[in-house]
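BUG: 3D viewer hangs when loading the predicted structure for this chain

Environment: internal workstation, default settings.
Expected: structure renders.
Actual: progress bar stalls at 90%.

Input used:
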Amino acid sequence: MPSVDTNIVLNSFNPVTLEETGSIRLMNRMDTKYLFPVTLMPGLLERLSSSYRILQIDGKRAFHYNTRYLDTSDMLFYTQHVTGKLARYKIRFRKYESTGITFLEIKKKTNKCRTVKWRIENYSDVTALDENAALFINKHIPFNSFVLQPILENEFTRITLAGIDSNERITFDTSMSYDTCAGEKTELPFLAIAELKSEGYPSISPFIMAVREMGIQPAGFSKYCMGNALLRDVPKKNILKQKLLLLNKIENEYSKFNGS
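Structure tokens produced before the viewer hung:
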């Protein structure tokens, strides 16, 4: 089967505006992630073009994101995640390059495995949270916000699809890179991460049908945890061994496709 150009496939989608996607922000939702070689992206997108519209802003359909994660010095949020603790939190500053706006975001994974997100427009200094940021964090988390510090930065490119006949969003993240505050860096050009965001487990979803046809299986993946595991000597790293092996497998598949 001949390869398909990603840009050609992206242009085959009908557009949806940022305002139109406001009705499906899904700040309280179910999330399901899928990991696969980026070389499968065009074929997967081609299967979805009749069932979803693509977010378009100022003529662009792929957007750069920059994220700075906050944690405690002993990596409390990281440890909560890798040990599978529910009612766990993640705190980050995320800059949306499409709009130039930065939000302070709190994500909570509830004990019912739902994801709840709160955010405010804010960009505090690297070394300290301002009063608004501290009040916002303390409102949503029973936690002293002043013990938080920047731990990891993450950049990626995102494509967002919105269902035409379904109340769901799908994001595709590629060109992943990480940078610690100490200067360690790594890039994952071979990886694509798709995430289905919906109010509940959809009984009928063109996306789920498409990934099943392509043999792509669901796989839990935290950008924050994996970035730390790739760059740091973090606690309980052995828990992430299977995820690290999956990344190696995907990188090998990518290399074979590209003949390297």
